[in-house]
């Protein structure tokens, strides 16, 4: 399968967040994905956004069919990141990873816990305490408890004070801290004081499969230090927690426990609606029974992350993992936006099939410029611009912006068309040039070229074709040609090309 163009979209860190380290980590992910795309020779663009409002323009600025979604949150409204896949879909793109419904569910730990429990999966008992609400001791799970924000990820808001050995003032203080610091509900959950493991899951085709089961080992944690993967353990290299929280891959578990964790992880990822990749975190109690802590549909995939280590352990190169995500996403594209498996095929057209339309070749350049000049329609500077466009199309090839095709009769070029996606739009294409050798005009060659280009534009999700032409009398036949082909005048810019020479903008819905 030929991979489509890819936009690597990520959030920009900053804004004075208290969790700046986790926000900055996304830059490492974006760099790693871009490097993998370079190795795969996939055309791509990297763009960063600070708010959801910036996403539509960032996506529409190019014609990439797939968005590798690394947007994990925004400073003022972290939950807005969940909407990015929906925006991509509205613009005719497919995003990697979970869709908006999946991301929204996974971010809300209370709702996702309820979904997992309803699916018959083991989760620690807990209660959700809204800001300003009071809780009764009888509503709480048995101690010890862990208190964390209901809608945060990357261990944000979790440290040693989050684990409370007994109910009382300590528990009230932990709940109040979440309310004040994050402005959201607090999840009070039974703390499973045992081993911690996680399971990396990928989607290959339509099926989810386990890559690896890893264990987090807590080395030299004394009795007074909770054995948890808190924020410092993930993001602060100078801390004790970071230095003494180590990954063991694969986990040293009895085979039956590892197999059970793998089965539960697949069921949990499916229940949340994960796609492409996910990580499921567990705690094991004293009898090695697994309890699901959370499902992360967009885990950290930076080079030093645990998920990336699981990818390598499974025998995948990082670029293979990235390629798998893109292939999955491309299959979710609307049918009209799916790219063909190869370059556009040449077509024989015309009443007797005597005209061949194919990709422009280097040897076509001279004949194309010769018949453009022979038409008498174009000024010398315009002919020079046509040469620059041909050169740009030849230099970039089929992956470039300019899509250039030549009509050939026998071995002789007799017509040329060039089009490309309009920047900063969704599904709009510009027809930059169309020309036919004077001796072959009025034989339907121009109509054949235009119809050929329109089919290719529509196959890439095109919805609107735009032509700009001159308003002077000499161009009346050109305007009449486009009118016969279904184009309508949408705008007129007086004196655009010269005094008395207006620009006419013509459009057609594909």
Tell me about this structure:
This protein is an alpha+beta fold and 510 residues long. Among the domains are: 98 residues, 3-Layer(aba) Sandwich (Rossmann fold), CATH 3.40.50; 67 residues, Dna Ligase, domain 1 (2-Layer Sandwich), CATH 3.30.1490; 123 residues, Gcn5-related N-acetyltransferase (GNAT) (Aminopeptidase), CATH 3.40.630. The chain is built from 15 helices and 21 strands. An eight-stranded mixed sheet has the order 14-15-16-17-18-19-21-20, sandwiched between helices. The protein has a five-stranded antiparallel sheet with strand order 11-10-9-12-13, sandwiched between helices. Helix 1 packs across helix 11. The mean pLDDT is 86.
């Amino acid at each position: 399968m030929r991979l489509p163009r890819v936009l690597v979209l990520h959030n920009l860190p900053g804004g004075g967040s208290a969790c700046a380290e986790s926000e900055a980590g996304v830059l490492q992910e974006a760099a790693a994905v871009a490097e993998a795309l370079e190795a795969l020779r996939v055309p791509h663009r990297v763009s960063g956004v600070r708010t959801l409002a910036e996403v539509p323009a960032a996506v529409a600025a190019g014609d990439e069919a797939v968005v590798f979604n690394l947007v994990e949150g925004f400073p003022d409204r972290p939950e807005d990141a969940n909407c990015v896949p929906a925006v991509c879909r509205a613009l005719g793109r497919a995003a990697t990873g979970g869709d908006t419904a999946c991301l929204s569910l996974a971010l809300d730990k209370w709702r996702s816990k309820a979904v997992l429990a309803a699916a018959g999966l083991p989760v620690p008992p807990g209660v959700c305490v809204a800001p300003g609400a009071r809780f009764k001791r009888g509503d709480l799970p048995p101690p010890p408890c862990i208190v964390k924000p209901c809608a945060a990820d990357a261990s944000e808001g979790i440290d040693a004070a989050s684990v409370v050995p007994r109910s009382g003032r300590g528990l009230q203080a932990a709940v109040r801290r979440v309310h004040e610091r994050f402005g959201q509900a607090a999840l009070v959950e039974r703390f499973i004081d045992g081993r911690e493991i996680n399971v990396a899951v990928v989607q290959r085709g339509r099926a989810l499969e386990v890559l690896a089961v890893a264990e987090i080992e807590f080395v030299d944690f004394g009795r007074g230090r909770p054995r948890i993967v808190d924020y410092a353990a993930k993001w602060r290299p100078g801390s004790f927690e970071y230095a003494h929280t180590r990954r063991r891959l694969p986990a040293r578990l009895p085979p039956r426990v590892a197999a059970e964790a793998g089965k539960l992880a697949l069921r949990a990822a499916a229940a949340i609606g994960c796609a492409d990749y996910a990580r499921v975190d567990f705690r094991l109690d004293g009898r090695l029974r697994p309890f699901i802590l959370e499902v992360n549909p967009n885990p950290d995939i930076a080079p030093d992350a645990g998920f990336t280590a699981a990818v390598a352990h499974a025998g995948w190169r990082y670029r293979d993992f990235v390629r798998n995500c893109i292939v999955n996403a491309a299959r979710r594209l609307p049918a009209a936006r799916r790219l063909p498996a190869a370059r556009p095929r040449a077509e024989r057209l015309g009443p007797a099939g005597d005209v061949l339309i194919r990709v422009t070749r280097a040897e076509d350049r001279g004949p194309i410029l010769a018949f453009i000049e022979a038409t008498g329609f174009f000024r010398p500077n315009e002919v020079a611009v046509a040469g620059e466009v041909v050169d740009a199309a030849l230099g970039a090839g089929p992956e470039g912006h300019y899509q250039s095709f030549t009509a050939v009769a026998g071995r002789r070029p007799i017509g040329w068309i060039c089009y490309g996606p309009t920047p900063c739009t969704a599904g709009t294409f510009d027809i930059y040039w169309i020309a036919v050798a004077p001796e072959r005009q009025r034989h339907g060659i121009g109509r054949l070229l235009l119809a050929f280009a329109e089919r290719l534009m529509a196959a890439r999700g095109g919805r609107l074709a735009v032509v700009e032409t001159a308003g002077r009398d000499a161009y009346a036949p050109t305007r009449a040609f486009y009118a016969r082909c279904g184009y309508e005048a949408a705008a007129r810019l007086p004196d655009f090309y010269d005094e008395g020479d207006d620009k006419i903008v013509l459009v057609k819905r594909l």
